[in-house]
Amino acid sequence: MKQDVILCAIESSCDETAVAFIKNGNEVLANIVASQIDIHQRFQGVMPEIASRLHVEQISIVIKQALKAAALTWDMVDGIAFTQGPGLIGSLHVGTIAAKTIAWYLNKPLIPVHHIVGHIYGNAFVSELEFPLLALVVSGGHTELVYMQDHYDFEILGQTLDDAVGEAYDKVARMLDLGYPGGPLIDDLAKTGEPQYQLPLVHTQHELDFSFSGLKSAVHNLISKLKRQNQPLNKANLAYDFQERALAQLLEKTELALNQYDVQHLVLAGGVAANSRLRELFNELIQVHPNKKLTIPPLWCTTDNAAMIGAAGYEAFKRHLIADLDVAAQANLKM
Ligand code: KG4
Ligand code: ZN
């Protein structure tokens, strides 16, 4: 194997058409993201049918843009990494077919990557991953504590029993008529709020699991009750109380896992890792565990992108986790 490894990476699992070129797993040569958010905003959520059509329109353009931005020619590329799943099946198909086509044309290895594994490996752009590692994965579709003894060795310690935390943010934002995506809007609004409303604490049978649907329903019931009683609703205070309750659960479970497992490196991953209050709370948490390393992904790497798929793909490539050309996208792919 020549010394440097350059991978082309493609991500299309939801509403971002993204292509990156990554050298040796942690050097970004190009990272282009074409977001569809403006279009889905009109519907207050991602419309799967529209998402896949927009991916079809964008994918070739974004591939060409990224290759040009990286100042590469295809013969310099060693493999094609792509998001195989989980995600919206129509969207996943577009990136998968593009990756398979390039891999076939160049006769280069095809490297399937799990979207959430990509989110975890996004931290490699900040700091080398050290093991044993604990990742709190928080996105629109996932809320999981993942334990890794080594690269590409994943154990799910706990996960949400119902809604993902990002999904709860988006649904509560909709109840408050804030817009889409709701996470950043609640994050901002909560900064101007203060404690006012009593929202329930959540208990799960297995202590490292999560649950957010009870909290979401409590917000819904509270809003309905205030409306019925013609009482004013302080949106900023409700955003504040919802956020504090939701994040307290994330912190509590992460701390439990830190105490139960031997952990060297704690990382945050996924779209909700952009949350300013969660980042603050994680920085406070690590003060109590000064012998552990904390990495919080840069903001550009919290939202969906292909660079993180290239970082994870590099580790897969080194381990010869290569797929045949008949590999298919999987909406519910397991880690
Ligand atoms: O990782 P991601 O881009 O997509 C999935 O893989 O699901 O995460 C998107 C989620 C959305 O639910 C969005 O509302 C949430 O991340 N999010 C946030 C923030 N920024 C994005 N949630 C809370 N606070 C934020 N600042
Ligand atoms: Zn994601």
Number of strands: 10
| Radius of gyration from the alpha-carbon trace, in angstroms | 20 Å
For the biggest sheet, the summary is: 5 strands, mixed
Categorize the overall geometry. Answer: globular
Unreliable residue runs:
none
**Could you spell the SSE succession in H and E letters?**
EEEHHEHEHEEEHHHHEHEH
Please count the helical segments. Answer: 10
- Please indicate the percent range of residues in DSSP E strands (runs of 2 or more): 15-25%
Strand order of the largest sheet: 3-2-1-4-5
Helix % is: 40-55%
- Indicate the structural class: alpha/beta
Question: What is the distance, rounded to the nearest whole angstrom, between the alpha carbons of the first and last residues?
Answer: 28 Å
Q: Which hetero compounds are present in the coordinates? A: 5'-O-[(R)-(carboxyoxy)(hydroxy)phosphoryl]adenosine, zinc ion
Mean pLDDT: 96
Outline the secondary-structure elements.
Elements: E1 6-11, E2 16-23, E3 27-35, H1 37-41, H2 48-69, E4 79-85, H3 89-106, E5 110-114, H4 115-121, E6 133-138, E7 143-148, E8 155-159, H5 165-175, H6 182-190, H7 213-228, H8 235-260, E9 265-269, H9 276-287, E10 293-295, H10 307-318
Parallel strand pairs: 1-4, 4-5, 6-9, 9-10
Antiparallel strand pairs: 1-2, 2-3, 6-7, 7-8
Helix pairs in contact: 2-3, 4-10, 5-6, 5-7, 5-8, 6-8
Bound molecules: 5'-O-[(R)-(carboxyoxy)(hydroxy)phosphoryl]adenosine (KG4) and zinc ion.
